[in-house]
Amino acid sequence: MSTLPAPRASLLAALPYWVSLLTLPLAAIAALMGGWWVLLLPAFAWLLFDILDLVGGLDRSNPDPDTPESALFWHRLITVIWVPAQAAMTFGLVFYATRAGHLGGWEKIGLFVGQGVISGAVGIVYAHELLHQRDRVERWLGDILLAMVLWSPFRSHHLRVHHLHVGTPADVVTARYNEGFHRHFFRVLWQMPRDAWRAEARMLARRGLTMRSRQNPFWRYAALQAGMLALALALGGVEGLMFFALQAVVAIWQLELVNYIEHYGLTRKHLGDGRYEPVRPRHSWNAEHRASNRLLINLQRHSDHHYKPDRRYPLLQTYPEDEAPQLPQGYPVMGVAALIPPVWRRMMNGRVRAWRRRFYPEIADWGPYKRGELPRPRGA
């Protein structure tokens, strides 16, 4: 595919990824109308994109991976704009809902559950894109988005643990074969922050520093999250603080639901003595569904993201099934299936077994892989 050098052409190519901004007027309508209108945001993220995926089909086209960053200005801009947009939406709802006499308790809860879905399905996805960049401003913006959902250690874990050790026992985010989402979620909740802390401690120790050092990012995480909590308290009092916390919990739940889908049952081959094969496209589930990839800025092209973590989202590649395993549906449908473990196992366990036969016919005993009993990688 040829590069689009003209800014106008780049804007036209980027516009489908700006669909996330539709959530701002939807949030306003939900808050003003109340009643069943409070379900607008989850209906947008889940139901609408289920339908659009059926209508829009698959997108197997691959952009030129050598496209210069100058041609991606409009693609990058939406990830930057989203930071103040999400802040306005989240804290605007905290301020308004705690003062709106026409909203009952269940309506307020529904409103902030919907906000949490958007903070997770859009905000954390954008944060994920930003934290992978070399630009310091973009990384800070990613930190702000993560602080808005009180899940700042995700940055340390994602960069220091997940990308290095995906598909091994050292990565709690890699869901084990036959492990239900609910069990996986609670395992991640306590283990991920602990592993993130240990990874940063190892990094600092190699430089002769301790976790008391100002270079420990957890100081920044704590300050940003405290600032978010203080702002919610100032705008909405204790009730506003509780609603802010609710949207954060839902956002984290949404994120970990996606993480569960992305790597379920996929393991890297153990080569002996704590050594594992390099990360390849086969170690992440891939999805080519056009509509949901626009909302999720190509996150479903996850096979290429792990293979080339520094590649910006508009340039992520898709792969045929003989190189990367394919999900039967996009993330919105797969997320619903993951919430019902028997349905999930029926959809996915056969695919995991087929993946094993295709890529690792030489492995006769998958028991240690399934139970997470293999040695931790060196240095983990």
Topology:
Blueprint: H1 7-14, H2 23-33, H3 40-56, H4 73-97, H5 105-131, H6 136-147, H7 153-165, H8 181-206, H9 217-263, E1 270-272, E2 275-276, H10 290-295, H11 302-307, H12 331-338, H13 341-359, H14 367-371
Antiparallel strand pairs: 1-2
Main location: membrane
GO biological process, one term: lipid metabolic process
EC number: 1.14.15.3
Number of domains: 1
The main sheet orders its strands as 1-2
Q: Please state the average pLDDT score.
A: 95
Secondary-structure element sequence? HHHHHHHHHEEHHHHH
Instruction: Kindly state the number of beta strands.
Output: 2
Spatial extent as radius of gyration: 21 Å
User: Poorly predicted ranges (pLDDT <50, ≥5 residues)?
Assistant: 1-7
What is the 3D form?
globular
The main β sheet shows up as: 2 strands, antiparallel
Tell me what portion of residues adopts beta-strand conformation: under 5%
In DSSP terms, counting alpha (H) and pi (I) runs of 4 or more, how many helices? Answer: 14
Derived from helix and strand composition plus strand pairing, the structural class reads mainly alpha
Euclidean distance between termini CA atoms? 40 Å
| Helix percent band | 55-70%
Pick out its properties:
380 residues, two-stranded antiparallel sheet, membrane, transmembrane helix
Characterise this structure.
Strand 1 and strand 2 form a beta hairpin. This protein is mainly α and 380 residues long. The protein has one domain (7-371). Helix content is 61%, strand content 1%. The protein starts with 6 loop residues before the first helix and ends in a 9-residue tail after the last helix. The protein has helices spanning 7-14, 23-33, 40-56, 73-97, 105-131, 136-147, 153-165, 181-206, 217-263, 290-295, 302-307, 331-338, 341-359, 367-371; strands at 270-272, 275-276. The protein has 14 helices and two strands, in the order H-H-H-H-H-H-H-H-H-E-E-H-H-H-H-H. The chain has a two-stranded antiparallel sheet with strand order 1-2. The model is unreliable at 1-7 (pLDDT under 50). The chain crosses the membrane at residues 37-56, 77-97, 109-127, 218-235. GO terms for molecular function: metal ion binding; monooxygenase activity. Its EC number is 1.14.15.3.
